Amino acid sequence: MDIKLGFKRIMLLSFVGASFFAVSCDEDVLNNLASGDTVAALKEALTIGAKTAATNLGQKDGYYGDAMVKIGMPQEVATVAELMSTTAGKTFLNTIGAEGLQTDNLVELMNRAAEKAAPESAEIFASAITSMTVSDGESILFGNYQSASANEEGNITASFGSDKAATSYLYDKTYSGLQVTFGDVVTSTFDQVSVSGLTLNSAWSSFSKGYNQIAEKKNTAGGKIAMTALSVGLSAAGKSALYDKVDAIQTVNTNLGEYVTGKALDGLFTKVADKEVDIRTNAAARTSDLLKRVFGRLDE
Q: Is 299 among the domain residues?
């Protein structure tokens, strides 16, 4: 073989190999950059959603006036409210001497407490989002993430579709921690909000006292007579199922702080999810170059 020809072949092969290696390295770099951009964009979208949710829910009637996130009655309150709506129920409560069972203001107070706490949730959410490790940004971006907790009873992510995948991921990774950090903020508002001169703590304390009287007295001699009369009265009114609820009453065990915090968080996540959908589907909602570049891929 001609020495010069052999040398040229070696140089050519070396060049091709080096070029292939360079292209492969460039692809790796580009893929890494793309993945990093995706994760950064997802976190930015979630942060925007959290700030928007905190602002909107922190306004008067943010929770109380929005049927989608309004905090409803704990089961204990719902049972008593239903009982007090019947003649037989009112007679029963008077007979056993249950006192302090005011239910009218409790729902509003719970929602006012959540509204007062909501503005402080933005910083708490931002911290959780920043520290969150996103293992598969592409899967989340294209809606292929499957929530690990979606099948849990009462879990709001069960209603989240692929267009809320980032919020589902955030829920799975941060909810437990947020219950603690945001819970402290929520419970601190219980003595700061009032309706008709009652704070949430005082209203719940009064209600719990009366509710516990039902639990303690319904099995006494006089209570059993009252329960029999209640059964007859509710049957006549076509509300026999309510009797079973009253019969099952035990000393109140709802932790109001956990209850209100959980419902308040559900509302926040619901609104974060709404913003995620907006960013995914509305180009005008992508307020940065990063969001436009990454979420613009969904339009292709």
A: no
Express each pLDDT in 220-245 by its tens digit: 999 999 999 999 999 999 999 999 99
Confidence class for position 22, pLDDT limits 50, 70, 90: very low
Asked if residue 300 is part of any domain, the answer here is no
Task: List, in order, residues 6 or more apart from 36 with CB less than 8 Å away.
Answer: none
Q: What is the pLDDT of residue 151?
A: 82
| DSSP structure string for 149-200 | TTTSTT-GGGG--GGGHHHHHHHHHHHHHHHHHHHHHHHHTTTT-EETTEEH
Cβ neighbours of residue 89 under 8 Å, at least 6 residues apart?
Answer: 82, 83, 230, 233, 234, 242, 246
The distance in angstroms from the start CA to the end CA of the chain is: 54
Number of domains in the chain: 1
Angle at 247 between CA 242 and CA 251, to 5 degrees: 115
The answer to whether position 23 is within a domain reads yes
| 21, part of any domain | yes
For residues 96 and 223, the answer to whether their CB atoms sit within 8 Å is yes
Is residue 200 within 8 Å of 110, Cβ to Cβ? yes
Overall pTM surpassing 0.90 (yes/no): no
Which residue range forms the structural domain that includes residue 122?
3-294
d(CA 232, CA 179) in angstroms, rounded, equals: 44
